[in-house]
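Lab channel / #folding
Pinned by the channel admin:
"Please post every new chain as: sequence first, then the structure tokens as a reply. Keep commentary short and put observations after the output so the thread stays searchable."

First post following the new format, from NK:
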Amino acid sequence: MIEIKNSPLSDGEFNRGVFATVSIPKNTLIHEAPVLAYPNEEHEHIEKTLLSDYAFEYGINHSAILLGYGMLFNHSYTPNAYYEINFDHHTFEFYAYRDISEGEEILINYNGDVDIQDPLWFDLEKQEKK
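Reply from TO:
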């Protein structure tokens, strides 16, 4: 249902994204990504690595690194997918927010909800450089 390919939306050395290999109807479970959770106070160590741009909030006291394709979904303020955290199974579940066409890149809003438009760290960094 999904594959990893080079994305025109990513810049830098790792320009990958998640793409649909078939048409995916709205509300379909696209991917279940297992979680490696760690306490927030340990995030200072992660911030010294490339992983800092890929960590997710995982409840109030934890952050998480996602396995599978979980960390490879790119961001959009108008996403075609969303995720829900399943704390019972320790997974992030990615769902189609709308019908997704075969070949289309699957995008999530890194703010957590599809309609939140708050600027993200990389947008703020771009603004500071101007």
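NK: Residues 2-35+66-129 form a domain with the Beta-clip-like fold (CATH 2.170.270.10).
TO: also worth noting, The radius of gyration is 15 Å.
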